[in-house]
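One chain given next:
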Amino acid sequence: MQLSSDISNTDQELIAQIVKGDESAFGDLFQRYWERLYLSANRRLADAELAKEVVHDIFLDIWRRRESLSITHVPAYLAKALHYRIINKLVVKKDTFFFDILENPGTSAYTADKELLEKDFTALLSSWLDVLPERRREIFVRYYFQHLSTREIAAQLDISNKTVQNQLSMAVQFLRAHFGHLLPVLLLVQEITRRP
């Protein structure tokens, strides 16, 4: 999403006023960007209420952190904030399709389109990998997808073997914390994709 402000120097003035606690400036900033953020969020989430919640959370965060705000380019800041909020919502969003599979394994699981499930899982994993720090993501991909040992990764990246192990551990902990509720679904997807 690309946001552009009509008068970029006014954005900076509004931020300066918001830092001082000016509710009117906050309202002006909200009015200037709310609709664009909402339309973008709704397009990505396909859920109007969730899109409103995401946008409100972004502005609520700005107001809560107003005294320590340091935003140099408001449209870029808002676009990035929206991107991360959407990823977080997609990760925790309760999708009824997955619950239908779990509740009705005799019907849903065997009729589910395996390619669709694989595509959904790949998109989910990709969105998760996008939020990892760059080095942790690189180590995770090399270990789990390229099947390199921790020593090989350490040698390639010129870091210690212990650093590689720590980064992998943190990545797996993050995966469990954010995707633990999807583990039964992932196992089911794996079982379905094995069947002819």
Residues 4-9, 95-112, 192-196 have pLDDT under 50 and may be disordered.
